[in-house]
Specification:
The complex is a heterodimer of chains A (245) and B (329).
Chain A (H helix, E strand, L loop, with lengths): L1 E10 L2 E11 L4 E5 L6 H8 L7 E6 L2 E2 L5 H7 E4 L11 H8 L3 H10 L15 H14 L4 E5 L7 H18 L2 E5 L3 H7 L2 E6 L2 E7 H4 L3 H7 L3 E6 L2 E6 H4 L1
Parallel strand pairs in A: 3-8, 3-9, 6-7, 7-8
Antiparallel strand pairs in A: 1-2, 1-4, 4-5, 9-10, 11-12
Chain B lengths: L4 H20 L7 H13 L5 H29 L12 H14 L9 H23 L5 H26 L6 H8 L8 H19 L2 H7 L3 H6 L4 H23 L5 H13 L3 H25 L8 H21 L1
Helix pairs in contact in B: 1-3, 1-13, 3-8, 3-11, 3-12, 3-13, 4-5, 4-6, 4-11, 5-6, 5-11, 8-11, 12-13
Classes of the chains: A alpha/beta (245), B mainly alpha (329).
């Protein structure tokens, strides 16, 4: 598990994260939501060691995260960045194999994510959505106990977004993966996540089970608008009030 | 074509063809049968004749191209810049300054060991300077880094010229230094050639350990770091090996531009972009190409010899321009 205590990040006088404490356990899918500039990406970058904290502490498996080498940390945590870069035009199988714990893991995850037909395709010949799925496959093939992903569904269409989140959730259930995923689409977050972290202006204003968080007033405050909660097929979805009216 | 045993066999055949072409060409054309005869004779008795000299010279050229092919792949991967190469990034200029100092300074150990060591130190220092300035200025695009490399190369080139002017005397003439800096091959003989060959293959073997890391760096430094790479340490090791390879090539080949750029690009089109196959194939093709070009440099206006650096520039500079046009169109 990964745990952050009283994280603060200040850059050029601006407070990006303010006294954040949170944790991620094996076997749960946690969605990080919040408006643009709330500090979601900064939080996940801190957790994977890409952003330095001004104060606070982070622990991975009860050990200070700073004491891990990058290789040790990668064995426990895999990460999907918001911006993907592909300098070399490798094949899909080569990309996934580079991240895989074993060669067999790459083949398995490609089949699992319905990417086997793309195995020999060059990565630069794929669409943005297909590339995002390949990077999800690369991260899952590492078979780390935790997955931290910064908007893995950003470039995907509606169907692919659900497929990607379903794949992550399946790994969470199947092998007790702990997943922390930044998601922009609130209903996608409430549908797939077990727990919600709501960031607002660098502060963690809500840390609650998804079905509870959906009804919280902090949601309206963070996005500065009133949401309407509607029950559809036995579960609730949210809409901005003006969108409904 | 998928890299594998088949592609390596083709690369080895091309390398042998390059060496045979280089050894056949010259003031007089020598047939492969005559070359083979000279080679067999050289096993039983020393052959100081022109064919034996030519063979050793061409094999030396092969290893210079072999090293430049490896260095090009390492620099392009480590700088994450497909336009990087030892010549354009100032590494070759640094290596040539180090080698010039080894030749000209009376205190430096002028020996078969001192020259490569100074060439390596020069290449390494120049590479780290370009990387350091680029990081300080937060330059992460290909064009910006090349501009830093060009500026550093110009500075080092001027320093080398000044050093040559001040320190050269009757024993080391200006003409000899000029010829060397234009890219003229030395001819390592006997044990020195064997050492050169062993070092070249050893550097290829060591550089293979970098291959996976160079592949991963293509995802960007943040992703590479989260995939378990200690990026700063890896770059330090990669650039040291790149500088060693450049230093070795510069010590025996002088300043030969564009080989490290052209060869990895051609090989990429052939076997794809994974760095493991790229290193092996670029070394073999680079070696074969330079061996053949060495023959061309001796055959074009006999009995004079055109500095090899001029031929690689005539061939490589238009290729570089082509890459730039393709990149920006």
């Amino acid at each position: 598990m990964i745990r952050a205590e009283n994280l603060c990040v200040v850059r050029k006088g601006a407070v990006l994260l303010n006294d954040i404490s949170c944790h991620l356990e094996p076997g749960e899918l946690v969605a990080v939501i919040g408006p643009n500039g709330a500090g979601k990406s900064t939080l996940v970058k801190c957790l994977v060691g890409l952003e330095k904290t001004t104060s606070g502490q982070m622990f991975l498996q009860q050990r200070p995260i700073a004491s891990y080498t990058p290789r040790e940390r990668a064995r426990h945590v895999s990460y999907i960045a918001q911006q993907q870069e592909f300098l070399w035009d490798l094949t899909v199988l080569e990309v996934v194999t580079l991240g895989a714990k074993t060669p067999g893991a790459a083949e398995g995850i490609l089949a699992h994510l319905a990417l086997r037909e793309f195995s020999d395709r060059r990565i630069k010949s794929l669409s943005g959505g297909e590339r995002a799925r390949v990077m999800l496959a690369r991260a899952l093939a590492a078979q780390a106990s935790l997955l931290i992903a910064d908007e893995p569904a950003a470039h995907l269409d509606v169907g692919q977004q659900r497929a990607a989140m379903a794949a992550i959730r399946q790994e969470v259930r199947r092998r007790a993966l702990g997943a922390l995923v930044v998601i922009h689409d609130l209903n996608l977050a409430f549908t797939f996540a077990d727990r919600i972290l709501l960031l607002d202006n660098g502060r963690l204003t809500l840390d609650d089970a998804a079905d509870q968080a959906l009804h919280a007033q902090e949601l309206d405050q963070a996005f500065n608008q009133s949401f309407i909660r509607v029950e559809v097929g036995g579960r609730f979805v949210v809409f901005p009030e003006e969108q409904v009216s | 074509m998928k890299p594998g045993v088949g592609s390596i066999v083709i690369a080895v055949c091309l390398a042998i063809a390059g060496v045979l072409t280089g050894a056949s060409l010259g003031v007089d054309f020598v047939t492969p049968a005559q070359l083979f005869g000279a080679l067999v004779d050289s096993i039983t008795q020393p052959q100081p004749d022109i064919i034996s000299w030519r063979l050793q010279r061409v094999v030396g050229a092969f290893f210079v191209g072999f090293c430049l092919g490896i260095a090009g792949v390492i620099f392009q991967g480590a700088f994450r810049n497909p336009l990087a190469e030892p010549f354009l990034l100032g590494s070759a200029a640094g290596g040539s300054l180090g080698a010039a100092l080894a030749i000209l300074l009376p205190t430096a150990a002028v020996s078969s060991v001192g020259l490569p060591v100074m060439a390596f130190l020069g290449a390494w220092g120049a590479t780290l300077t370009v990387l350091g300035i680029s990081r300080f200025a937060k330059i992460d695009d290909a064009a910006g880094m090349l501009l830093v490399g060009i500026a550093v190369a110009a500075l080092l080139g001027a320093t080398r010229s000044m050093t040559t002017l001040v320190l050269s005397d009757e024993t080391v003439s200006l003409q000899a230094m000029l010829s060397w800096t234009l890219g003229s091959l030395q001819t390592p003989m006997g044990a020195t050639l064997a050492l050169f060959g062993v070092l070249s293959f050893a550097l290829l073997a060591v550089s293979m350990f970098l291959a996976k890391g160079l592949d991963i760096l293509g995802f960007g430094e943040p992703t590479a770091q989260t995939m378990g790479m200690d990026v700063a340490r890896f770059l330090g090791v990669a650039l040291t090996i790149g500088a060693l390879t450049t230093g070795l090539a510069v010590a025996w080949g002088g300043v030969l531009g564009f080989v490290g750029l052209v060869v990895p690009h051609m090989v990429r089109w052939w076997v794809g972009e994974r760095h493991g196959p790229l290193l092996v194939h670029s070394a073999l093709i680079g070696g074969g190409l330079l061996a053949a070009l060495d023959g061309v440099s001796r055959a074009l206006i006999p009995p004079s010899e055109i500095p090899l650096g001029l031929i690689t520039a005539f061939m490589g500079a238009p290729f570089f321009l082509l890459l730039i046009v393709r990149r920006y169109r």
